[in-house]
Amino acid sequence: MIIDVHAHVYADPRIKPRPGGTTFMSAKDQIAVMDRLGVDKAVILPLNSAECPAEPQSIGEVLWICQEYPGRFIPFCHVDARIARHPEQITVADFDHLLGQYKDLGCKGIGELTTRIPWDAHPMLCMLESAEKLGLAITFHTITEDVNSYGVLDEIGLPRLEKVLRKFPDLVFLGHSPGFWNEISGDVTAETKNAYPATPVAPGGVLKRLLREYPGLHGDLSAGSGLNALTRDPAHAYEFIDEFQDRLLLGLDFCSVTNDMQHINWLTAARDAGHISGEAYEKVMWQNADRLLRLDLATD
Questions:
Q1: How many domains does one find in the chain?
Q2: What pTM was computed for the model?
Q3: Is residue 297 in some structural domain?
Q4: What is the C-alpha separation between 134 and 180, in angstroms, rounded?
Q5: Cis peptide leading into residue 112 (ω within 30°)
Q6: Treating both helix axes as pointing N-terminal to C-terminal, what angle do 263-272 and 223-231 enclose, rounded to 10 degrees?
Q7: Which of 30, 154, 198, 226 is exposed most, by the fewest CB atoms within 10 A?
Q8: Are the C-beta atoms of residues 75 and 107 closer than 8 Å to each other?
Q9: Predicted pLDDT of residue 298
């Protein structure tokens, strides 16, 4: 089985987020890609924060897609922590009311979290506390404040993320984005933090320390950022997968029919060549997602 934990899927996408670009994937487009790559299920991550250049998507649309293609999609919800009131007046109960309804509708997590506020801002802490209480996972994109883009704000070394990992030990975090994956290397700079470095992984990467110290942190291998974390230094990647085989999940992040995501090919080749074990391969491909999102597929 293969589960893609990072997909953006619309019923009938019309808006092109960037000039000269394409729309996001329709459900039919996504199913075609999944069938071609042998992907059984994909998590739909709506993108609704003000900063993210995407067509807004309702939970009703996400659930409709899941209903139209039974067994193929897993719904996540999106909540912007800046709900409509003064930030300091937001409470955990506000999020319990919203997220509890999403959970009752079948959502397994929140994401992709792209809100441009710090991890330790009061509204964010309220949302994370509610998510932990309800057992909803968090898929996030993170950046530094100097970058004019979307994502939860942090710094080199991910100190703000570490604060919430410590504060919410039972919350499942699925990390994504260059700002997350480049911390695998100990030589991160302001220039490489949010880029796609081709240099070998240097010792001392904070991401490995965080994975070792905080069981709630996991790696979403999606997009160019996740794949680059592996392919920039294959020898390191094989050791990384072996050590963290219980903490890594396959993601693809097809945002357009023009994308060419090579994650499955790379991981399968690594397994076939004996660089990673068959056991680790199965965990990354679907078993970790099954366990963390409580899909109960292993018992079917």
A1: 1
A2: 0.96
A3: no
A4: 25
A5: yes
A6: 30
A7: 198
A8: yes
A9: 85
